[in-house]
Amino acid sequence: MKDLSTSTSRKRVLSGIQPTGEVHLGNYLGALRQWVHMQDEYECFYVIVDQHAILGDGDPADLPTRTIDTAISLLSVGLDPEKCTIFVQSDVPEHLELQWLFNTVAPVGDLERMTQYKDKAAKYDSIPAGLLNYPVLQAADILIYRANAVPVGEDQRQHLEMTRDIARKWNARYGELFPEPDAIIPEVGRVIGLDGDAKMSKSLKNTIGILADEEETWSRIKGAVTDPKRIRREDPGRPEVCNVYSLHKLLSNPAIIPDIKEQCMTAQRGCVDCKRILFDSIIDVIAPIRKKAFYYQQHTDEVCDILKAGATRARSIAIDTLSEARDRMGLNWTSAL
Ligand code: TRP
User: Both 161 and 308 in a single domain?
Assistant: First the structure.
């Protein structure tokens, strides 16, 4: 058997992001902040999943721009191509072949029970097969690098279970090859939308883009829902049900949190003033990100080179894993000659 051990003793991490273009605060808090932290400690691979994205109803003409803008966001939040490998899924076609190999062990019944599948399938008259197989491609994205850990948002927990299950089933049949990766989900869990919707999502327009200017940022925060029972300025608030307070906890200096809480519960500070403080915290976080993004927007050639170099690095590993998987499944017919 080929030696597929990693070049370093560091554990491997893989995660993926949809090419939605500019990332938003929910993506940042829910996953990307971890991606940045992990690059110092682990051997990290971060993939922009354009082949997953074509399942959506986006205009194909926009996809290349969305892919590049997503890469710009990743670089701007602090991913460093010297420390991690950033690439585009379609540049490493081996993922798709491994997906097919996995389709031979992935149980349809389990795929049909995925919550995201059920939610999305309900919107179609005729469900595309790719929607059902989405988690199988995701498993291939991860396992082709034999990753040990996958930093993702709460909404991906079930997909990670599926990945582990596919690894287990495949290994049981063809011999141990794929590790069962752990999902690394930050404490924040799901960051809820500024409008109170359960999800922060660009399409719901209830988030703040990581590259938003101050005016835009303030207008989003100003409109954010707080404790629905705090109607008048003098009503005491309940921080534990307030989304603005949750965001303070995630973004503001921990030293000011007790004061934010206290002043709310005693109605000494109104929601607008509380939001102004949050605004300052958010600006502190996103100002340096915007500055980097501005640079990359002027230097898209550099972004392109980073992605191409990332794909080359990723591909060399993907080819080795795939070749081993093919061998074990009897697809290397020349071995009989
Ligand atoms: N399904 C993930 C999402 O929508 C994106 C994704 C694709 C992914 N492949 C992955 C995440 C592999 C982690 C690992 O956010």
Answer: yes
